[in-house]
Amino acid sequence: MNRYARLALALLALAASPALAREALGMFGSWGVFRDADTARCYAIAMARPSTKSRDFQPYADVAWWPRAQVRGQVHFRLSRKLQPNAPIQLSIGGQRIALTGGSADAWAIDKRGDAAIMAAMRSASEMTVNARGANGQGFSNTWTLDGAATAMDGAAVACARIR
User: Quick one: which H or E segment has residue 8?
Assistant: First the structure.
């Protein structure tokens, strides 16, 4: 990961929550690991590959643990554009196509089984791509490199293992 990408990831993390509450735990490939003690959550996060196409938002993907809410390994995508209501959202990863649900500019697995399937695929695939239709009716996609994703997810899980 180049210096620009690391800086952009750090800035993304700063924007995600108050600066004093979050602790950076490490960088693994293109993925960062953070713990936020104030909200009792840990997460692995990465920015999507750069694009020259128009974007409403900086897209990122994260896998989060919220131990007090008994949420483990929730996969979330912040997409680059506002979504067309009720349009399909699809993740392509490791030769699989997985339907997602979402709204505004966010997408998630449909259920916990979907989260588990995505996390398992992230461990062996080299990249993942979300395809969707924007509010303007045009299709778009965001792609993430998965170099370091498995280690980052493990790091986030371990970081929240003792939080109750």
Answer: helix 3-16
Contact 42/159 with Cβ under 8 angstroms? Answer: yes
**Domains and their CATH numbers in the chain:** 3-159 (2.60.40.1880)
User: Distance between CA 5 and CA 3 in Å, rounded?
Assistant: 5
Rounded CA-CA distance 42/73 in Å is 10
Cβ 122 vs Cβ 150: under 8 Å:
yes
In this model, does residue 164 exceed pLDDT 80? no
Angle, vertex CA 109, rays to CA 46 and CA 84, nearest 5 = 90
Q: Decide if 135 contacts 83 (C-beta within 8 A).
A: yes
Mean pLDDT for 101-108 is 96
Could you give the count of Cα atoms lying within 13 Å of 14 in the half-sphere of its Cβ?
Answer: 6
**pLDDT tens across 50-103, in order?**
988 889 899 999 999 999 889 999 999 999 999 999 999 999 999 999 999 999
Q: Which ranges constitute the DSSP H helices of the chain?
A: 3-16, 112-122, 149-159
pTM of the model: 0.86
